[in-house]
Amino acid sequence: MPISPSVRVATRFARGLLTALTISASLTAGAAAQSAPPVGHWLTEKKSGIIEIYRCVNGGETLCGRLAWFRIKPDDPNPQGLDLNDPDPSRRNQPLCGLTFMSGFKPVEPNKWEEGSIYDPDSGNTYHGTIKLRDDGTLDLHGYIGISLIGRSEIWTPYKDPVPRCPGH
Question: Number of folded domains in the chain?
Protein backbone atom coordinates (compact mmCIF):
# COMPACT_ATOMS: atom_id res chain seq x y z
CA MET A 1 0.00 0.00 0.00
CA PRO A 2 1.56 3.36 -1.01
CA ILE A 3 2.15 6.04 1.64
CA SER A 4 0.09 9.19 1.11
CA PRO A 5 1.86 12.56 0.77
CA SER A 6 0.24 13.83 3.98
CA VAL A 7 1.67 10.89 5.96
CA ARG A 8 5.14 11.56 4.47
CA VAL A 9 4.90 15.24 5.51
CA ALA A 10 3.75 14.29 9.00
CA THR A 11 6.58 11.75 9.30
CA ARG A 12 9.20 14.32 8.18
CA PHE A 13 7.72 16.84 10.60
CA ALA A 14 7.86 14.33 13.48
CA ARG A 15 11.49 13.42 12.66
CA GLY A 16 12.43 17.11 12.48
CA LEU A 17 10.71 17.79 15.80
CA LEU A 18 12.45 14.82 17.42
CA THR A 19 15.83 16.04 16.12
CA ALA A 20 15.15 19.57 17.39
CA LEU A 21 14.13 18.25 20.81
CA THR A 22 17.25 16.06 21.00
CA ILE A 23 19.52 19.00 20.13
CA SER A 24 17.68 21.24 22.59
CA ALA A 25 18.05 18.65 25.37
CA SER A 26 21.78 18.33 24.63
CA LEU A 27 22.28 22.09 24.74
CA THR A 28 20.29 22.38 27.96
CA ALA A 29 22.31 19.59 29.59
CA GLY A 30 25.53 21.33 28.52
CA ALA A 31 24.35 24.66 29.94
CA ALA A 32 23.35 23.01 33.21
CA ALA A 33 26.78 21.40 33.50
CA GLN A 34 28.45 24.74 32.90
CA SER A 35 26.40 26.45 35.58
CA ALA A 36 27.26 24.02 38.37
CA PRO A 37 28.11 26.10 41.44
CA PRO A 38 31.74 26.30 42.57
CA VAL A 39 31.02 24.39 45.78
CA GLY A 40 34.19 22.98 47.32
CA HIS A 41 37.64 24.12 48.43
CA TRP A 42 39.62 26.90 46.75
CA LEU A 43 43.23 28.02 47.22
CA THR A 44 43.60 31.79 47.39
CA GLU A 45 45.72 33.68 44.89
CA LYS A 46 48.66 34.13 47.27
CA LYS A 47 48.29 30.52 48.45
CA SER A 48 47.88 31.72 52.03
CA GLY A 49 44.37 30.39 52.60
CA ILE A 50 41.89 27.69 51.66
CA ILE A 51 38.27 28.76 51.31
CA GLU A 52 35.29 26.42 51.47
CA ILE A 53 32.44 27.60 49.26
CA TYR A 54 29.08 26.03 50.11
CA ARG A 55 25.36 26.60 49.66
CA CYS A 56 24.17 28.94 52.40
CA VAL A 57 21.82 27.46 54.97
CA ASN A 58 18.24 27.99 53.72
CA GLY A 59 19.71 29.83 50.73
CA GLY A 60 18.83 27.42 47.92
CA GLU A 61 21.32 28.31 45.19
CA THR A 62 22.84 31.17 47.22
CA LEU A 63 26.54 30.68 47.99
CA CYS A 64 28.57 31.41 51.12
CA GLY A 65 32.22 30.87 51.98
CA ARG A 66 34.26 30.23 55.09
CA LEU A 67 37.95 30.20 55.86
CA ALA A 68 38.95 26.52 56.10
CA TRP A 69 42.70 27.06 56.60
CA PHE A 70 45.18 29.93 56.55
CA ARG A 71 48.89 30.45 56.99
CA ILE A 72 50.21 32.40 59.96
CA LYS A 73 53.68 33.84 59.43
CA PRO A 74 56.16 33.49 62.33
CA ASP A 75 56.24 37.27 62.83
CA ASP A 76 52.45 37.73 62.55
CA PRO A 77 51.11 40.19 65.18
CA ASN A 78 48.05 37.91 65.51
CA PRO A 79 49.61 34.47 66.21
CA GLN A 80 46.31 32.98 67.47
CA GLY A 81 44.47 33.89 64.27
CA LEU A 82 41.64 35.84 65.87
CA ASP A 83 39.24 38.28 64.21
CA LEU A 84 40.89 41.28 65.89
CA ASN A 85 39.51 43.89 63.48
CA ASP A 86 35.84 42.91 63.64
CA PRO A 87 33.72 46.08 63.96
CA ASP A 88 31.80 44.35 66.77
CA PRO A 89 34.17 44.22 69.79
CA SER A 90 32.29 41.20 71.20
CA ARG A 91 33.45 39.11 68.20
CA ARG A 92 37.13 40.05 68.25
CA ASN A 93 38.09 36.90 70.17
CA GLN A 94 36.50 34.54 67.64
CA PRO A 95 38.93 32.48 65.56
CA LEU A 96 39.30 33.26 61.88
CA CYS A 97 39.38 29.56 61.10
CA GLY A 98 35.86 28.53 60.19
CA LEU A 99 34.71 32.16 59.89
CA THR A 100 32.02 32.71 57.26
CA PHE A 101 33.25 35.80 55.45
CA MET A 102 31.36 35.44 52.16
CA SER A 103 27.57 35.40 52.00
CA GLY A 104 24.56 36.03 49.82
CA PHE A 105 26.01 35.26 46.36
CA LYS A 106 23.02 34.65 44.07
CA PRO A 107 23.21 33.07 40.60
CA VAL A 108 22.54 35.63 37.84
CA GLU A 109 23.69 33.69 34.78
CA PRO A 110 25.61 30.50 34.13
CA ASN A 111 28.90 30.57 36.08
CA LYS A 112 28.23 33.97 37.70
CA TRP A 113 26.96 34.92 41.17
CA GLU A 114 26.32 38.49 42.37
CA GLU A 115 24.86 40.50 45.26
CA GLY A 116 27.26 38.90 47.71
CA SER A 117 29.08 40.35 50.69
CA ILE A 118 32.76 39.83 51.48
CA TYR A 119 34.13 40.54 54.94
CA ASP A 120 37.86 41.40 55.04
CA PRO A 121 39.24 40.38 58.45
CA ASP A 122 42.47 42.32 57.80
CA SER A 123 40.58 45.63 57.74
CA GLY A 124 37.25 44.78 59.38
CA ASN A 125 35.43 46.15 56.31
CA THR A 126 32.67 44.46 54.33
CA TYR A 127 32.43 44.83 50.55
CA HIS A 128 30.01 43.95 47.78
CA GLY A 129 31.13 40.97 45.75
CA THR A 130 30.74 38.85 42.64
CA ILE A 131 31.98 35.36 41.82
CA LYS A 132 32.67 34.13 38.31
CA LEU A 133 33.69 30.58 37.45
CA ARG A 134 36.10 30.97 34.53
CA ASP A 135 36.46 28.65 31.55
CA ASP A 136 39.84 27.40 32.82
CA GLY A 137 38.22 26.17 36.08
CA THR A 138 39.53 29.00 38.25
CA LEU A 139 37.34 31.31 40.27
CA ASP A 140 37.35 35.11 40.00
CA LEU A 141 36.28 36.77 43.25
CA HIS A 142 35.71 40.51 42.86
CA GLY A 143 35.14 42.81 45.83
CA TYR A 144 34.10 46.44 45.50
CA ILE A 145 32.53 49.48 47.12
CA GLY A 146 29.70 51.17 45.22
CA ILE A 147 30.14 50.11 41.59
CA SER A 148 31.81 46.91 40.44
CA LEU A 149 34.13 48.72 38.00
CA ILE A 150 36.11 49.94 40.99
CA GLY A 151 37.42 47.18 43.18
CA ARG A 152 39.86 44.32 43.42
CA SER A 153 39.82 40.77 42.08
CA GLU A 154 41.55 37.59 43.13
CA ILE A 155 41.84 34.40 41.13
CA TRP A 156 41.42 31.21 43.17
CA THR A 157 42.28 27.69 42.04
CA PRO A 158 40.49 24.48 43.00
CA TYR A 159 42.04 22.73 46.01
CA LYS A 160 41.70 18.94 45.88
CA ASP A 161 44.10 17.78 48.64
CA PRO A 162 43.01 17.19 52.24
CA VAL A 163 42.60 20.52 54.04
CA PRO A 164 45.28 20.98 56.74
CA ARG A 165 44.29 21.75 60.30
CA CYS A 166 44.04 25.42 61.12
CA PRO A 167 46.88 26.98 63.10
CA GLY A 168 46.31 26.60 66.82
CA HIS A 169 43.71 23.81 66.45
Answer: 2
